[in-house]
Structures are given as structure tokens and as C-alpha cells.
Amino acid sequence: MTDPLARRTDYRVTFLVLCVGVASFSLLQSMVNPVLPTIQAALGTDQATVTWVLTAYLVSASVFTPIIGRVGDKVGKERMLVVALAALAVGSLLAAVASTVGVMIAARAIQGIGGGVLPLTFGIIRDEFPREKVASAIGTSAALLAVGGGVGLVIAGPLVEALSYHWLFWIPMIITTLAAIGAAIWVPESPERTPGRINIGTALLLSGWLVALLVAVSQGHHWGWASPEIIGLFVAAAVLLPVWVVAEARSDQPLVDMRMMRIPTVWTVNLVALLFGMGMYSMFAFVPQFLQTPEAAGYGFGATVTQSGLLLLPQTVASFIGGVAAGRLATRVGSKALLVVGAALTAIGMFGIAFAHDELWMIVVETLFLGLAFGLAFAAMSNLVVAAVPQSQTGVASGMNTNIRTVGGAIGSALLATVVTSELQPTGLPVESGYSHGFLLLAITATAATVVAILVPVVRASTHVVPGPQAEWEAEHPEHVQA
């Protein structure tokens, strides 16, 4: 019998292309945050309007991540990977040449479509890689999301100072264009497909409650939590969410299979993702802000954007090390153990920042703990979800996990902004206790994530594997299949 994968691209080449795509998406998530005031001044807008540069990307990525993942399960993951990378490239080009804030916001919404890169990457890895390589490959690619977030904070300042903020988009455009070409040439089309059509009705319902919720939590601090607009958005989300769940449960062709979402491993890991996202994304936003606070405020270090980014470099390196090590460690101790350790280290790091932040070395050590935690936990969450679902649902399952983590980040950032700014000095800067209480809140959510992680049941990766070309290849190459 002819080897069904003999003529397929070497999985290491495929992995390189996938990592470039994931890294580009994660960079675009974080690079804009530190230089938002620069963009505001350059485009001649106000603070309330420029926040939509972040909100548009957040909302678009949250909506499209599970949808693109599901479409990839149905029509082909390689094809949709090219589409997602092309959206990142087009959005980056439009943002680089934007002369008004409206064009910039539209560009960021287009970039959000690229959120589908992550679930498509996990699905392609599961379909194409030898089984003993799957855990480490998923771990590394998942950790790149945390690594890219940290790298974005490190390079944003120097890049803007040396060139201009436009290069925050020119560079990702070049990288994602090359990645899209590489995906079209070298990434093989997935042999796994989910039959049926895309359920447009449930996709609209999913988009509706996500948009309502995320706009409310991201703009509540600016519009006022008791404003009619914010209350109306929360009410809309509260109504649309259960309607979406019921519609999916009754549908013959669900966009997100509710039976899959009820798998114990899936829903418990998703709950960890929600709690974990609250801490990680909030840390990316508020630790640099804390470091940049003038010493005249009685705390902070008066760091520049560039200096605060460099102070977080050890955290970025630790994230990468944790993600790379997670795959190998998972084969020895299991992904659940890594998830518990990652969540526990997050809690330790957050408690440390809340109570010990008087010296720079304290912040560096504490964020290093957080970086290691992010690398381990991201890899573990992705591996646990991928192993728990049928191969044909890898895209949508990992997409929803990524999405829930993003929702957690939006909620955490909104809560932290409210806590930090609840009491201001005459200069307009937050008092120190605002940061202490905010980081303490994140430490509590990380502790809750640790408890939930302990309760996550473990499913063998082989339990739900659907026979196909990969299974045939493994049968003929038992030396590559892990017992």
C-alpha cells in the first residue's frame, strides 16, 4: 500500500508556516496598546474614540475565531488558513496607510478575522503531524500567543521611536503576506471534513451576544456603567446568549455543538480559560502602565514605553521556554498537571505584584513567574481541549476555548480599570491602593482557576480520533505512534 502522506509536505515545514501566522496575530494583539496615545495624537481624535482601535479588533477576533475554525472543519483548514492570514495582511496594510481614525478602526476589524489562525493551526497539527509530535507542536504554537503578546510590548516603543507607529502594521503585513503564500504552497489540505452546511442563523446569534457583551465591558469605563447604552448592551447579551444556546442545541447543523461543549474536560478547561484570560490580558495592559507611572505619584518607576517593554522581556522569554517545555513535560506528567501548575504560578505571581512592587527587581521576578505560567497553561489548555473532542471538531472547539479566554481578558481588563481608577490623586493618577486591589482581584481569579484546573477530567487523545489518512499512516508507521 502506498504511504498516503508520502507526497505531503514535511510536517516541520508546515509547522514553521503555522508558527509565523500565530506569531503575527499575537503581535497585532499587543503592539498597539502601549502606543495608543501616539495613534490618538497622529489621527487627531480623542481618547474615547481611539479606544475603538482596540475594541474593534477584540470584538472582531472574538466573533470570527470560532466561526473561521468551524468553517475550516467543514471546507478545509488549509484554505481557511490562507483566508485568515490574508485578512491579517489586508487589515495591516489598511491600518498602515490609515489617515483617519475611522479607517484605522475598520482596518483593525478586518485584522480580527485573523483570529481564526489559532484554531486552524491546532486542527492542521492534529491532522498532519505524527501523533507523538502533536502535544509539543500544539504547546509551542499555543504558547506563541502569550510570547507574541509579550514581544509586542517589548518592541512597540523602540519601533515607534526609531521609525513610526505605521511600522507596527507594515511589519506584520509583510510577515503575514509571506505566511499566506507559504500556507498556500506548503501546508497540505486537511483530509478531515465535517459534512453539512454552515448554520448562518446561529452564527448571527453568536455574533450578536459576543458583540453586545464585549462592547459593554470594553466601553463601560468610558460611557459609564450605569448609562442606558451599557445597560442595554448587557441586557441584549443576557437575552441572546441563552437563545443562541437553545438554537444550537436544537439545530441539526450546529455551528458549535452543545454536546461537545458539555464534555466535562471541555467545559472545565473553558472555565479555566475564562478565569485565566482575566489575569493574563489584564497584566499585559496594566503592568506597563504601573511601571510608567511617575515616581512623583508615590509609586511607579517613571519608565518610558521602551523601558517598560524591556523590563517585561524576561517574562516573554519565560513564556516561550514554558510553551516549548510543556509538550515534552505533558508526555511525562500530563497536560492537566501542567495546567494546575500554570494556574498556581499565575496566582503566586499576581499575589506577589499585589503586595510586593516597591522595587524593579520584584516586578521582574514576579512577571517572570507569570511568563512561565502563561507558557505552560496555554499549551496545556489547548492540548486538553484538542484531545477531548472528535478530530472533525478540533477547529471549533479550540476556537471557542481561545474565544472564551479573550472574553475573560475583556472582562478582567474592564474590572481592573474600574478598580484601579476608583480613587484618583489630584494629579489625575490612580492611588497606589487601586493597583494593589486590582492585582489582588486577579490573584483571586487565578486561585479560582487553579481549583477548577484540579477538577479537570483527563481524556486520552485517541478516544475520539476519526479514522482517515492520518490513521492509516500511523498504522503503517507504528514507530511514530505513542502508546
Outline:
InterPro entries: MFS, MFS_dom, MFS_trans_sf. The protein has 483 residues and is an all-alpha fold. It contains 20 helices and no strands.
Topology:
Elements: H1 11-30, H2 36-43, H3 47-50, H4 52-75, H5 77-97, H6 101-112, H7 117-128, H8 131-162, H9 167-186, H10 200-223, H11 228-250, H12 258-261, H13 264-292, H14 305-311, H15 313-333, H16 335-355, H17 360-388, H18 394-420, H19 432-454, H20 469-476
Helix pairs in contact: 1-7, 1-8, 1-9, 4-5, 4-6, 4-7, 4-10, 4-18, 5-6, 5-7, 5-9, 7-8, 7-18, 8-14, 8-15, 8-17, 10-11, 10-18, 13-17, 13-18, 13-19, 15-16, 15-17, 16-17, 16-19, 17-18, 18-19
Classified by CATH, the class of the largest domain is: Mainly Alpha
Structural class: mainly alpha
What percentage of residues falls in helices of 4 or more residues?
over 70%
How much strand content do the residues show? under 5%
Shape: globular
Major pleated sheet: none
The average pLDDT score comes to 82
Ranges where pLDDT stays below 50 over 5 or more residues in a row are 1-7, 461-483
Number of domains: 2
User: With helices defined by DSSP (H or I, 4 residues minimum), what is the helix count?
Assistant: 20
Gap between N and C termini: 24 Å
In CATH, the topology of the largest domain is named Growth Hormone, Chain: A
- Order of helix and strand elements from N to C terminus: HHHHHHHHHHHHHHHHHHHH
Number of strands: 0
CATH superfamily of the largest domain: MFS general substrate transporter like domains
